[in-house]
Structures are given as C-alpha cells and as structure tokens.
Amino acid sequence: MSNTAVAHQDAEDENKPARGRPRDVEKNSAIIDAASQLFLENGFDGTSMDEVAKRAGVSKQTVYSHFSSKEQLFADSIHITIEKYFPDQALQGLETHTLEGDLTVVATKFARLLMSQDAMAMHRVLVAAAGRGPALAKIFWEAGPAEMIVKLSAFLKVWVDRGELDIDDLEKAAGRLVSLLKGKLHFEMSIGLFDSVSDDVLKAHVDDVVDCFLQLYRKK
Do 33 and 120 share a domain, yes or no? Predict the structure, then answer.
C-alpha cells in the first residue's frame, strides 16, 4: 500500500466512532434510566427485567450483560440518583471557604436530594417492600445513605483538621446531620402533606440545621 493510501486509511480510522465503549455507555445509561423510572412507578417486585429491556430499547440479554441481577440494577439506580444531586466533585471547589458558608452549601445540596421527588418516591417503594424482609433495604442503605454518610464524613474531617470542629466520631456526626436535614419537612413530604418545598422554605430549614449542628460541634 502506498504512503498516500496509508495516510488516507489512517484519516478514515480516526474519523470512525470508537467501537464498543461509547455504545456500551449509552446502553448502560438507557438501562439505568429505564430501571429507575420503573422502580419508582411499580416498586421493586413490580418491575421485571423484561420491562426494563423494553423501556430501554434493548434486549433482555443486553440488560443481563450489563447487570447480573435486578438487585444490582436497583443499587446502581440509587447511586446514579445520588450522583445527580450530589456528584463526587461537589465537595471540591467550594467558594466560601468558611465553616458556616461551606456547611450551608453542602447541607443545601443534601437537603435538595432528601426532599427530591425521586427520594420521596423511593422512600415509599421501600416502605411498601418492608414486608419482604431487610434485603432490599440493605441494598438501598449501602448504595444510598451509607454513601452519603461517607461523603459528609469526608467533608467534616476537613474542618476538624482545620481546628474548627470538635468531632470524635465523624460517622456519628454525619448521621446526625442527615437526621437534622430530614427533620419535620421530610416526614411531612413522605406522608403526602405536600409534594415540593419552596426555595425559601428549604433555605430557612437549612439555616436552622446549620445553626443547630454548629452549636453541637463548633470548637469552643
């Protein structure tokens, strides 16, 4: 083959879409999106892998090539929901660089996640499935709240290391922060008193939580 022909072939190869991975990523996302919708609509037991495949526009074999079980798919859908509201990089590049300011930013992100329609719907799914035993709740806990606790613990450690927070047990303190953020609002939403929270109400709630948390843990 001539040098000109080789160069032409290389140019064609560079312009071709990458094989496998981009398409696999698209299918993976489509499957998770479909499963997330179906879990919220029909619950865990009411969702089948056949339905997931149909809504995602892929074959059932393709679904199983990406996810070994419905339980794994459920866990990944929870993880993706958390990433949507609170991505891994959310703790980086906070702009205030004060304890109260950064805590307010982080608490607001978590509050928006906890009060989201997705979170409320998933809460109801778990309550409905409680009679089938703790297996599903354990999957949810490990993929959702436990991950939140890890992220919050990492954030709090930064301010402990800076000498502004006095916390002996980071995991326990992070759990308390989540409990404060849920508070009365989460309970009211979970039983259907209202289905959304205004920005003003959320801000007032977060401000109260931050004030309470700092009274507990700010270094004297």
Answer: no
Would you say the pTM of this structure is higher than 0.85? no
3-state secondary structure the chain: CCHHHHHHHHHHHHHCCCCCHHHHHHHHHHHHHHHHHHHHHHCCCCCCHHHHHHHHCCCHHHHHHHCCCHHHHHHHHHHHHHHHHCCHHHHCCCCCCCHHHHHHHHHHHHHHHHCCHHHHHHHHHHHHCHHHCCHHHHHHHHHCHHHHHHHHHHHHHHHHHCCCECCCCHHHHHHHHHHHHHHHHHHHHHCCCCCCCCHHHHHHHHHHHHHHHHHHHECC
Please report whether residue 167 resides in a domain. Answer: yes
Q: pLDDT, tens digit, for every residue of 114-124?
A: 998 888 888 88
Residues 46 and 78 both lie in one domain: no
| pLDDT tens digits along 151-190 | 899 999 999 999 999 999 999 999 999 999 999 999 999 8
Answer yes or no: do 47 and 100 share one domain. Answer: no
